[in-house]
Amino acid sequence: MEQQLVLEERFGQTSILKLNRPEVMNSLNFAMLRALSEKIEALQWEREVRVIIVSGAGQKAFCAGADLKERATLPEEEVRKFIFTLRELFTSIEYMNKPVIGAVNGIALGGGTELALTCDIRIASENATMGLTETRLAIIPGGGGTQRLPRIVGRAKAKELIFTGRRIDAQEALSIGLVNKVVPSDQLIDQCLEMAAMICEAGPIAVTQAKYAINHGVEVDLRSGLAIESNAYWVTIPTEDRTEGLTAFREKRKPVYKGK
Known about the structure:
By secondary structure, the chain is α/β, with parallel strands linked by helices. It folds into two domains: 6-200, Alpha-Beta Complex (2-enoyl-CoA Hydratase, Chain A, domain 1); 204-251, Lyase 2-enoyl-coa Hydratase, Chain  A, domain 2 (Orthogonal Bundle), CATH 1.10.12.10. The protein is built from eleven helices and ten strands. Helix 4 packs across helix 5 (145-153) and helix 5 packs across helix 6. The mean pLDDT is 95.
């Protein structure tokens, strides 16, 4: 029986995707990229799923980056194709219409850290190790790391980490803002599900529009960002959910949002 490279579990309105190559620390090969891309594309349109959690199978690794054994066998054109495929997948995760939580459960190096960077929220286990280590292999991060890391931790710290290829532990990742929270390993998924449940209590259209406004607004000047925010706000005004939120507040009960 062929190994299923990306496992999926459902907990209410949350989908957990687990990279499933624990024998090679969930490293990314072409087959894994295709499997993850198919899952992400399908979840993009599933109304029942409100939040996605991405993690790695096993106890040791979130994702150790590209499968270097496969990489060593690829001609230059195939390497270019791999990097393009990787970059397109990671961009689709970052800009998909639902919040994505990265559950960093161990080693996350190179492309593994880049995958975590595409997530909206990152929660790490105490044993997590992160780093963009590509320069030690005489290459540079090719899945968006040179662009996303400085936007999250600042230009100087990103340059330090990328130039040196240094690995950092979970507490240092927390101290520089690379992760939102550090939790015991055995509580990681539960903590991510708890965060997801809180998000699911909010209006789904509002969350989608808030993510859109943040992702697109942060890249432009303030005046343009405010215009993006205004347009995103206008989308929420005619919704049934907005009326339900006001009614529930007045009636002192929890709102029941339907994404309409």
